[in-house]
């Protein structure tokens, strides 16, 4: 499939499920190119947060420096999370978030993964209408190149 290609493009193909066969040595160049265009490239390793009490939305908010975490105190924590992503769409030129070890996220916290996807898609049109890239990438197999390319 597409892997991490097209991170610098505004496209409706905004959710990526990436396997190792979809990654090559160009990944670093792809991320550097996206950043050079003002696209925030965030990275979260699910293995590092899976046993923490915070919600995944709070961890993503920390990585992306969103405005209003923690979200856990809200009646529906995904609403302020997606509101913060909408606000971010007014301030930056694009977003690409890679969640590493996503296979464990789907195995251990499936509902969180699906809620994240749904929240991401609810707010996506704000980016798309502005012609700004917005990508949520689930790295489905461990790959050190992803950490190296995305981690600042």
General description of the model:
This protein is α/β, with parallel strands linked by helices. The chain has one domain. The chain is built from 7 helices and 4 strands. It has helices at residues 27-36, 46-49, 56-64, 78-91, 102-108, 110-129, 144-150, and strands spanning 15-18, 39-45, 94-100, 134-139. A 4-stranded parallel β-sheet has the order 1-4-3-2, sandwiched between helices. α1 (27-36) packs parallel to α7 and α4 (78-91) packs parallel to α6 (110-129). The longest helix has 20 residues, at 110-129. The chain is globular, with a radius of gyration of 14 Å. The relative contact order is 0.24. The model has no long low-confidence stretch (mean pLDDT 94).
In short:
By secondary structure, the chain is α/β, with parallel strands linked by helices. Helices cover 47% and strands 16% of the residues.
